[in-house]
Amino acid sequence: MTVTPSSAAPANGQRPVAAIDIGxxxxxxLVAAVDPELRSFSVVLTExxxxxxxERDPETGDLSPEAIERAFITLRHCRELAASHGVDLGDIxxxxxxxxxxxxxxxxxxxxxxxxxxxxxxxxxxxxxxxxIYLGVLSGMAFGEQPHxxxxxxxxxxxxxxxxxxxxxxxxxxxVGAVRLQRDFVSEDPLSPKRRQFLRAFIQGSLEPAVLKVxxxxxxxxxxxxxxxxxxxxxxAAMAAAExxxxxxxxxxxxxxRERLDGLVARLLEMTPDQRRAHPALxxxxxxxxxxxxxxLQTAMAMLGARELVISERALREGLIVDWMLRKGLIVDRxxxxxxxxxxxxxxxxQRYGVDQTRAERVAGYALSLYSQTRGILHHDDGSGRQLLxxxxxxxxxxxxxxxxxxxxHSWYLIxxxxxxxxxxxxxxxxAAIARYHRRSLPKKRHEAWQLIEAREQxxxxxELALLLRLAVxxxxxxxxxxxxxxxxxxxxxxxLIRLEPMTADADLSLERWSLQACAPVVREAVxxxxxxxxxxxxxxxx
Length: 543
Fold this sequence. Notes:
Helices cover 45% and strands 17% of the residues. By secondary structure, the chain is of the alpha/beta class. A six-stranded mixed beta sheet has the order 1-4-3-2-5-6, sandwiched between helices. A six-stranded mixed beta sheet has the order 9-8-7-10-12-11, sandwiched between helices. Strands 13-14-15 form a three-stranded mixed beta sheet, with helices on one face.
């Protein structure tokens, strides 16, 4: 276990926040002091422990009981250490990556973590992992006007990101990592020349789609800076730095040439396991997996034509802190564009599936108006679901891209399997389910969309917000807008009156009233409220 403290705990006025990265090889903890006035954060403490979740059952692919036990011990320690620095449980941001993503019992593991430790863990996708890594690197490195290639070699996956100071142009995640390669392909150590050749070819083939995507996003004449972050890059750079006349105190910004890297890799390939373990820059666990990790680094640099690697000490953990600050509105300037990532990723899916954006925005407007006016009647959300409702409203009809028949089920599938950057895995599933249940039947236990929503409170939120979306869609029956506004007021203890405001004085809203009234039985069944639709109100005066 490695602990790196800073000089001081958070000062007065600063808010302590923690981030936990549950990786394939290690679990990392970071405690940060967020300064709301300066809109920045400083690192108070970092810690990592090699829990080796990637060493899964060879037959089933499950996380092994031994790995789960190691992870629980470490996570309990992380929670207590964060609490000792004044971090509230709700401010411990926890993310799980490829090992948990791919394990059949991964969700069961996360559910146990929440029940036993009180930690809510986001199971993030590969592209979302890449985005968070980008945010973390950007928080500690000025990109200027030059594009950067960020390479993060983890235990189970490798993220390759093309980005500039404004946004990420390409976010890729490939299922090739140091632990995965060690487990699947390293049966002899040192590797024979034939095995080395095979491993290089496998790595190159695995990385090729990501490298091609990155190259396609580069403008003619652009020469990006290559940035290496996380375990493998840090370890290889530390080996090089140990040989320098004046080794640096920190690895941040350390530069490693391609020629020097090639020399280090050649030496690593000839070392025995004992020789690697004896190297002062490698701990025992890193010594076990450094060879395949270094081959990924060397191959990626060769494929991208990079002559030099710049080290970043910041990565996913810091990205979790930055993302939290973005959501709280605490970061501006170079992170401003990323603050709208949720809206932009939804609009990207709208365009991808040919959704009528004008009508989707109209439905979203109706849904949010109902949301604001029916709190405590049709829903009990605390405000956190508002963005989920908007996203579901914008994408509710995307399933028509496949087929008009039962399109709500197709919408669920497309949203569920699409990329929604900036949304946690649980939020992603909720958006898909809200869209799924905006028409036809209410949620049922046998539905996969419902089974994937595990928390009781999240199920209630999905059911209530889906009901609001159902009413909003009922108001959008024509290509052109006819409803200018919605007025809602309670009637008695269990009643709700909705009055529609027409766009013009002569507009006929009988179709919209009929459609809305047809939802009354579902509203009664779902929340026990009697819905009544009144005669239209007079249109508002417009300037």
